[in-house]
């Protein structure tokens, strides 16, 4: 991954390039932003620039394979794998990690867990991993220059590991660069944040995502425009949307069933049972699919609101099931949209944190019914 492989973020790239060119590289940096914004490939491109500033072809070749001896990676892992009692560290999965990152640079933590079949396990960065990082960075640089460690999923670092790394982050060995990559700054303890230079990576512009889809997936200009607006600044989601037309149709069917049941709930006493059954059906799929459906629902409501306010040029959604967006739109005004968005974001928050899907989605379906029927 090089800077040109990272979509958009030109102002951040220029800043990072200038730190290398002016020899002003902060020894500990925290890159924070949504996975789909390209935080991880940006960190890899920056590490390449630091390690290969002299344009050594051998250096670039090693980074291309994510096998440079002075480039280290750390990422969340379960406490153990299989029946083994050995404490798990990132080094045990480096081969799988390289394959994952090279094929899916915008991949998320759930994507990684799925790739190594640990979806049902609690993955963190633990003390054993922190000790391994300290050991690696205490050694001399193999090439005689900088050493760089990229700690991906730094917001999944538990308190014990964070405290273990405090001294290292505050006073690392000479020519040692620590790049922490995280989605949420709030989930990183203050003593770590205070020792890092924080770089906030924003969501991508729809036009940038569209260009990436045309270049990497050969989508047409029209297709990429529609998908990029759906993705809400997240290239990973855009790729998923472009590849999952069957899933999108399923999402539309779930959504239509949901709102139709919600509308009749005022006059049909048994509708509450239908809403509970609907919630149970959605909760039966995996959490990632649940979250994607809720994101899809948020965009569906947003499109209805734009239709309601006659912003026709911004309306791209065209339901395939015969659902009439123009008839639904009057029920989604600005006030309702705020409440709807809050409900959906709260549901996503709880599902991401392993709350019971049936309870979360049942509460959501009942709450949404009240909002749609409110004056």
Explained architecture:
The protein has helices at residues 10-21, 39-51, 57-64, 94-103, 109-115, 127-138, 159-170, 190-193, 206-217, 221-230, 235-243, 245-264, 271-283, 287-308, 325-328, 334-352, 357-373; strands at 28-32, 71-74, 147-152, 176-182, 197-200. With 375 residues, it is of the alpha/beta class. The protein has 2 domains: 3-200, Rossmann fold (3-Layer(aba) Sandwich), CATH 3.40.50.300; 245-373, Zinc Finger, Delta Prime, domain 3. The protein has a 5-stranded parallel β-sheet, with helices on both faces. β3, α7 (159-170) and β4 (176-182) form a beta-alpha-beta unit. The longest helix has 22 residues, at 287-308. The chain is globular, with a radius of gyration of 23 Å. The chain starts with 9 loop residues before the first helix and ends with a helix. The model has no long low-confidence stretch (mean pLDDT 88).
In short:
The chain is α/β, with parallel strands linked by helices. It has 17 helices and five strands. The model has no long low-confidence stretch (mean pLDDT 88).
């Amino acid at each position: 991954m090089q800077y040109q492989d990272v979509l958009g973020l030109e102002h951040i790239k220029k800043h990072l390039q200038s730190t290398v060119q002016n020899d002003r590289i902060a020894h500990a940096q925290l890159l924070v932003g949504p996975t789909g914004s390209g935080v991880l490939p940006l960190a890899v491109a920056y590490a390449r620039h630091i390690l290969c500033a002299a344009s050594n072809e051998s250096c670039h070749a090693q980074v291309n394979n994510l096998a440079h001896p002075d480039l280290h990676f750390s990422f969340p892992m379960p406490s153990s794998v299989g029946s083994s009692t050995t404490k798990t560290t990132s080094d045990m999965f480096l081969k799988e990690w390289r394959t994952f990152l090279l094929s899916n640079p915008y991949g998320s933590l759930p994507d990684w867990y799925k790739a190594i079949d640990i979806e049902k396990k609690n993955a963190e960065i633990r003390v054993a991993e922190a000790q391994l990082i300290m050991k690696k960075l205490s050694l001399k640089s193999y090439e005689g220059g900088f050493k760089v460690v990229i700690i991906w999923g730094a917001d999944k670092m538990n308190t014990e590991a964070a405290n273990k790394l405090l001294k290292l982050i505050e006073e690392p060995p000479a020519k040692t660069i620590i790049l922490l990559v995280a989605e949420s700054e709030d989930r990183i303890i203050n003593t770590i944040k205070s020792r890092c230079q924080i770089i906030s990576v924003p969501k991508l512009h729809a036009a940038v995502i569209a260009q990436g889809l045309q270049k990497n997936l050969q989508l047409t200009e029209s297709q990429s425009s529609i998908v990029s607006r759906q993705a809400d600044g997240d290239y990973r989601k855009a790729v998923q949307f472009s590849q999952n037309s069957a899933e999108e149709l399923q999402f539309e069917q779930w959504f239509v069933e949901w709102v139709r049941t919600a509308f009749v709930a005022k006059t049909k006493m048994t509708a509450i049972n239908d809403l509970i059954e609907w919630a149970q059906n959605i909760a039966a799929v995996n959490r990632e699919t649940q979250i994607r459906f809720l994101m899809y629902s948020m965009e569906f409501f947003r499109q209805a609101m734009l239709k309601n306010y006659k912003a026709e040029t911004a309306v791209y959604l065209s339901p395939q099931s015969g659902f009439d967006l123009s008839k639904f739109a009057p029920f989604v005004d600005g006030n309702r949209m705020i409440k709807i968005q809050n409900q959906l974001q709260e549901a996503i928050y709880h599902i991401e944190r392993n709350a019971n899907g049936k309870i979360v989605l049942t509460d959501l379906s009942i709450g949404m019914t009240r909002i749609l029927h409110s004056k």
